[in-house]
Amino acid sequence: MYPEIFYSNTFTLLAEAEVGKHFYWNIAGSLVHGQVLVVIWFVIAILIVFSLLGTANADRIPHGWQNFMEAAVDFVTDIAKNQLGESFYKEWIPFIGTLFFFIFGCNWAGAIIPWKLIELPEGEFAAPTNDINTTVALALLTSFSYFYAGLSKKGLGYFKRYVQPIPLLLPINILEDFTKPLSLSFRLFGNVLADELTITVLTSLVPLVVPLPIMALGIFAGSVQALIFSTLAAAYIAEALE
């Protein structure tokens, strides 16, 4: 194959890797991303099934699936404890754990399940975290949570942090509250989307062997992104509780 033909085909494939098209549902006059909601519901259903299996017939000495689920809960408990400390971590385990397991499930669902085999009128099934609306919603939930944490502990005195250590830092401290959700949402969205686009292009060029290491790397990266997001969320809440 001549180099110019190769590069021409590569750029054609990149142009055909569509980003942002969705299969819309019209619900009460509002358009929602149908394919994103379907995969989200699928992930939530899987998490509920795992939880039920882990708590059914629970024994004092865990074994089998109960042992696996308790290890998973211990993992997210350690995330909360390391960031929030002994005094505050317990009440935030449900939130931090939900963030981690939901993002983990979404990323793995997009990386493992062959959603592309299911054809839709427009758009395609994929990891919900490759949609900016999903990641922004998760980032805003994190922002609301650390505001709630600070206000519940300090009341209106929480807002003194904006003028500390000197009032001149007020604009910077306010800007920080905008950059935190932006950073959280775009980091998760960008990594998941970049991984899926890379796999799409490589699969189109070399459909058999080459994409497999990239897919394995995507599974690992999806796990790391879930850990990073939940750890940063816990760190922001800890900062508000200082």
Write a compact overview of the structure shown.
The chain has 242 residues and is mostly helical.
The number of distinct β-strands equals: 2
Unreliable stretches (pLDDT < 50, length at least 5) are: 1-18
Largest sheet: 2 strands, antiparallel
Instruction: Specify the number of helices.
Output: 7
- The percentage helix is over 70%
Radius of gyration: 21 Å
Note the overall shape: globular
User: Termini distance?
Assistant: 62 Å
**Lateral arrangement of strands in the main beta sheet:** 1-2
Run of helices and strands:
HEEHHHHHH
Count of domain modules: 1
> What class do helices, strands and sheet pairing give?
mainly alpha
- Provide the residue-averaged pLDDT: 80
User: Strand share of the residues?
Assistant: under 5%
Please describe what this structure looks like.
The protein has 242 residues and is mainly alpha-helical. The protein has one domain (24-241). 71% of the residues lie in helices and 3% in strands. It contains 7 helices and 2 strands. The chain has a two-stranded antiparallel sheet with strand order 1-2. Helix 2 (34-55) packs across helix 3 (64-84), helix 5 (132-154) packs antiparallel against helix 6 (170-205) and helix 5 (132-154) runs parallel beside helix 7 (211-241). The longest helix is centred in the C-terminal third of the chain and has 36 residues, at 170-205. The protein is globular and about 60 Å long. Mean pLDDT is 80; it is low at 1-18.
